[in-house]
Amino acid sequence: MPHIFIEYSANLEEHIDVTEMLQTVHDAASTHPSVPLAGLRTRAIRSEQFLIANGNSANMFVAVIARLNGDRGLEPLIEIRDLLNEAIQRSLADLMQDEPIAVSVEVQPIDAAMRVNENSIRDHYGELQ
Prior knowledge:
Elements: E1 3-9, H1 18-30, E2 41-47, E3 60-69, H2 74-98, E4 101-110, H3 121-124
Parallel strand pairs: 1-2, 3-4
Antiparallel strand pairs: 1-3
């Protein structure tokens, strides 16, 4: 049930294909053995209004936030954080050399007792059984 949110400043779209960035992060997360593809949800959230650092309109940001069941333990969560960080760095490497951009990656463990999950995706795709 990992939920990955990629929030980004709207001006990022002038420089990269956000769909490719989204796919790169999603694919990276899916490589971890404790991340079931059937439960993985990755979405991009465009921020129209933002202020970054000195307020220069050329400044950009990307914030990757992953929310996962904390029952996995600390080590897998750190591994997932590192996978996501590597993926976002690959997506933004060239841009970061030429433009001012702030990038962050955070993993937030979810207390299993505080969530309810319903998912019929596996019922519709045999390869996800």
